[in-house]
Design brief:
Elements lengths: L1 H4 L3 H38 L10 H17 L8 H17 E3 L5 E3 L1
Antiparallel strand pairs: 1-2
Helix pairs in contact: 2-3, 2-4
């Protein structure tokens, strides 16, 4: 593709690294929040829950988080409450620190 030839490979790698960092940040958070719920699921499959092991506070928090994430997924960014836009803005700012526009409006990768 002609468009690919115009990309700055070094900049592309920096942006890819940032996207990976964003994904890793989110995945780490998901595992921390969902870990207790996954532990509860494992307990259910091994029969421990049948012996009286119920869902604990952390597991309940994970369920609440899942409900909230589904709401956020279904909400366009513009309709999110201001307090929920913060992390999106942080990542957008990180991308913008990697790039800037020349006076003529063309992209200049740092």
């Amino acid at each position: 593709m002609n468009e690919d030839k115009q990309l700055n490979p070094e900049f592309s790698e920096k942006l890819a690294a940032l996207e990976h960092e964003q994904w890793a940040h989110w995945a780490r958070h998901m595992l921390e929040v969902l870990g207790p719920l996954l532990d509860y699921g494992k307990a259910m499959t091994t029969g421990l829950a049948k012996q009286g092991a119920g869902i604990d506070h952390d597991g309940f928090d994970a369920i609440v988080a899942i409900v909230d994430w589904n709401r956020q997924i279904d909400t366009p960014y513009i309709d999110l409450p201001e307090n929920e836009k913060g992390s999106h803005r942080e990542w957008a700012d990180r991308v913008l620190r990697l790039i800037h526009l020349n006076d003529d409006g063309s992209l200049n990768a740092k």
